[in-house]
Amino acid sequence: MPVETMIAPEVRARYEVVIGLEVHVQLLTQSKIFCACSTRFGAPPNSNTCPVCLGLPGALPVLNRDAVTMAIKAALGLNCTVNPYSRFARKNYFYPDLPKGYQISQYDQPLAEHGWLEIELDGVRKQIGVTRVHLEEDAGKSLHEGFADSDRVSYIDLNRSGVPLIEIVSEPDLRSPEESYAYLTELKTIMLYLEVSDCNMEEGSLRCDANVSVRPRGAEKFGTKTEVKNVNSFRFIQRALAYEIDRQIEIVEDGGHVQQETRLWDSREQRTYAMRTKEHAHDYRYFPEPDLPPLVVPDAWLEEVRRSLPELPQAKEDRFIREYRLPKQDAALLVTSRAQADYFEEVAKLCGEPKSAANWILNDLPFALDQHGKTFSKDTVPAANLAELVTEVVKGTITGKIGKDVLSEMVGNGTSALEVIAAKGLAQISDPEKIAQTAREIVAANPKQVEQYRSGKTATLGWFVGQVMKATRGQANAQVVQEVLKRELGGS
């Protein structure tokens, strides 16, 4: 049974929630941050290792330029100031998956600071500050088997040790689990647009720790915070925060004091539980990394990276609304994926019907792909083919209903719209005389319904329209069908 705390809305309303997020993003480099080992996920355990990432005596780190370039790109995408001078430090702690006994990270002089990103919730936009973006190496991974002490076994896989990370630390500007979810979603979208990470949470490419506290509404001093770790989805982060907020309010309401600690989220029991007392910076005994020189980012390098930045999601959404006259909801959905947004633009320019193109991409294409067990790709239905289909529907060559069947055939067989329409003889029938021939046959075969229509039950016209459409396999022009039937049926 999920464990829930029951806090009355009027009690919760007396408190303000303060949330800050620390997001670790694995960079999409081919090799690790300080050595040439591969970063490929899924390799046999401990196979992507060398003396440097194993922390063997005498092995010296060499900084990966690509990792720095990606980190700069991410920082610029988050509107940060990139510092021309930063340096690495040793963060000392002892854990089995940290072979050196310390992690090379950045501390008092990070790569970038003072940024922000914008979220939108319930139609309201809000800027969330980004305190810093800094580079560091990832640790290895511990794998545990068994539950009882007698049969508990742990394994260490150091393939991940040394994979380049950026840590993105937000300001404590978030005020609800819903805002946190919106922040993470926007952050992930930006990282994917920049192509600096695949953000695959299942593989650990994106991980989040949440710092949360509560304080009486109107108070200036922050409450005691707890850190929630080990959360592997945005939905679970939202639920973990909601639980932790209620837990803290309950403690304060009962006259107790919240302990500053690190807590883990149990998705089965839907609750957090204490892991350890929260560390402070001095516990890590930071000092400058003696084996690496300071990181200097010249203006020329910074400008080169700045010029490579793509148009980011919020700017693209605003442009779609302005340039293509799209409804806000359509524009927001289209830009959730850079590939989808680019695909839309290509289709819209080819067919000249942006609103129709958006409808097909957001509604009918996903349904057709699902029917055939396929995922979205610009090659599954090339933009030119979808533009052709949209054009034929707008022209009236085929009806929208038939267009959906044509699209399914296109997805399944990789054919173009015109090829499917020609092969199956699906072109719309708009010739009034051809439609009239079919209509007369149906009218003659259904005298009872004719009498009903002529006696004033004009709703019967819809039944006749359906019969004609059925007889023409949906190819008849519905408007012409109505006009022809009214003439053939006569009556009042």
**Low-confidence runs of at least 5 consecutive residues:** none
Spatial strand arrangement across the major sheet: 2-6-7-10-1-11-12-13-14
Number of helices: 16
- Calculate the terminal CA-CA distance, rounded to whole Å: 66 Å
Q: What's the pLDDT, averaged over the residues? A: 90
Task: Please state the structural category.
Answer: alpha+beta
Shape: elongated
Total strand segments: 16
Strand residue content: 15-25%
Approximately how much helix is present in the residues? 25-40%
Largest sheet composition:
9 strands, mixed
Give Rg in angstroms.
30 Å
What is the domain tally?
Answer: 3
Keywords:
492 residues, 9-stranded mixed sheet, Arc Repressor Mutant, subunit A, alpha+beta, single chain, 3-stranded antiparallel sheet
Secondary structure layout:
Blueprint (H helix, E strand, L loop, with lengths): L8 H4 L2 E12 L38 H13 L3 E2 L2 E2 L2 E4 L9 E4 L6 E10 L2 E14 L3 E5 L7 E5 L6 E7 L6 H18 L11 E11 L9 E6 L2 H20 L7 E6 L4 E7 L9 E2 L6 E2 L2 H9 L5 H12 L3 H7 L3 H14 L2 H18 L11 H13 L4 H14 L3 H8 L7 H14 L1 H8 L5 H12 L6 H12 L3
Helix pairs in contact: 2-5, 3-4, 6-7, 7-9, 8-9, 8-10, 9-11, 10-11, 13-15, 13-16, 15-16
Description:
It is a single chain. It contains 16 helices and 16 strands. It has about 500 residues and is of the alpha+beta class. The protein has three domains: about 10-300, no CATH class; about 310-425, no CATH class; about 430-490, Arc Repressor Mutant, subunit A. A nine-stranded mixed sheet has the order 2-6-7-10-1-11-12-13-14. The protein has a three-stranded antiparallel sheet with strand order 5-4-15, with no helix packed on it. The longest helix is centred in the middle third of the chain and has 20 residues, at about 235-255. The radius of gyration is 30 Å and the shape is elongated. The model has no long low-confidence stretch (mean pLDDT about 90).
